Amino acid sequence: MSIRFPHGATVPGIGIGTWFVGDEPSRRDEEIDAIRAGLDAGLRVIDTAEMYGDGRSEQLVGEAIRGRRDEVFLVSKVLPYNASAAGVRSAVQASLRRLGTDRLDLYLLHWRGSVPFDETVTAFERLQQDGDIVAWGVSNLDPDDMAELPHGCATDQVLYNPIRRGPELDLFPMLRSQGIPVMAYSPLEQARLLDDPRLQALAAESGLTAAQLVLAWVIRDGDVLAIPKAGSVTHARQNAAVLGMTLLAEVRAEIDRLFPAPRRPVPLEML
Question: What is the pLDDT of residues 180-198, one digit of tens each?
């Protein structure tokens, strides 16, 4: 399963999320090994942000990808209060230093703040011209926000999983009509979904782990990129294995029965 961005880049439908990665020094080696194992298994997208651990996540990612930068589709995010023309320039340079790279493949506005979209997007476009970033996108923007954006957005990264299906009703159709893929953060609801006995039973019947079942469901339509965190080598390899899986129609139908989408649009949720 591959995802194609509007500017032509194509990546596997499972990536590597790094929210909370780098927060515990005692787990540093294990987390670096997990990222590298994901790359070894064929994953390419690594998603991080200046907000994560006040830069500690970016620093850890930088160490994990040292010598392997060209294998990675690297994504980071700028905080809303850094989204001014001058702030974006300073923020991206700080992120590049922490990551040990000269460019980001995708740079996202983390959520909407007080800085006008036009100012932020103009700053992003200047970063593109200078070679600091290849493409830009957004995160946590609802359909009304997306309608205000200037042309050129590569993705909207939002909270999406079987218990957070609101975007299916309004945001996803809008993005599909524009050829913009979704990035799904917390696709496992920060692992809380893995304790659901109904999912555990359905996964066992399908010969999958609960995490694999949920991830396969999240990316089922081919235009959603899931970025689960993998805290161990084993989990990284299991996540990557999802790329070769296809859920049976009856399994998809059972998940729809267990976790139905809302009947009408709901406000975009965030964690």
Answer: 999 999 999 999 999 999 9
Token pair 């990546």 is at which residue? 11
| Annotated catalytic residue, options 52, 107, 160, 185 | 52
pTM assigned to the model: 0.96
Q: Give catalytic status of residue 52 as yes or no.
A: yes
Query: Can you tell me the distance from the alpha carbon of 183 to that of 251, in angstroms, rounded to the nearest whole number?
Result: 23
Cα gap 131→48, rounded to integer Å: 19
Q: Kindly provide the b/e burial profile for residues 149-187, where b requires at least 16 CB atoms within 10 angstroms of the residue's own CB.
A: beeebbbbbbbbbbebbbbeebbbeebeeeebbbbbbbb
Comparing C-alpha atoms, which of 27, 43, 36, 82 is closest to residue 62?
36
What is the C-alpha separation between 178 and 180, in angstroms, rounded?
A: 5
The one-character DSSP state at 17 is E
Phi then psi for residue 70, to 5 deg, are -70, -10
